[in-house]
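quick one, 228 residues, struct below
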Amino acid sequence: MLTDFIALIFPNTCAACGKSLHKNEQSICTYCAYHLPKTNFHLDSNNPVAKIFWGRIPIYSAASYYGFNKGGKVQHLIHQLKYKGQKHVGITVGKLYGHELSYCDDFNTVNTVIPVPLHPKKQKKRGYNQSDCFAEGLAQSMNAEADLKVLYRAVESDSQTKKSRFSRWQNVESVFQLQNTETLAGKHVLLVDDVITTGATLEACAQTLLQVPDIKVSIVAIAYAGNH
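---
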């Protein structure tokens, strides 16, 4: 009764459309779960996310769950996760996507899920890293381990939002480092972020991870923003 009363005053709403959630819905309403713009990139090894890294870095596979349109529901979903403290959104999306990836040959051998790290100062200010939440959800569905510590950001870099592709790459080059690398040797690692635009940050993280012997690196994000 108390839960129902609280829900009347502070209704649980869908992070994508803002409508009230029904009793058994979590973070995303059933309608949005079926109608958000899924890319199905994980089913095509020549997808636009994978092509970002061609000729740049030897990624095993790459994909994103949704397509990103400015002002659309996916942007609203990510905004709730990133700036409104709704960490459960990242976990829910991670579980949903992880379930699909676990049936895909390119991703079903993943052992470890690693989020793109925030600098400690930025994480302290925000209170959490949104990519950690996504990584935890993915790991749960994929029967893998989420390692939130092995990759860290040693240098605080500027915001990427209004930079060109080359400037973004310059901005993140050499800012990521590893600890306890022996835990990653021989593993298939899934590197994850919230949104892929140019891929510069993910490329820099992957370059660092690829220093580990016999490692295989794949990449996924919640959304692909293309030329946005």
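Residues 87-101 form the longest helix (15 residues).
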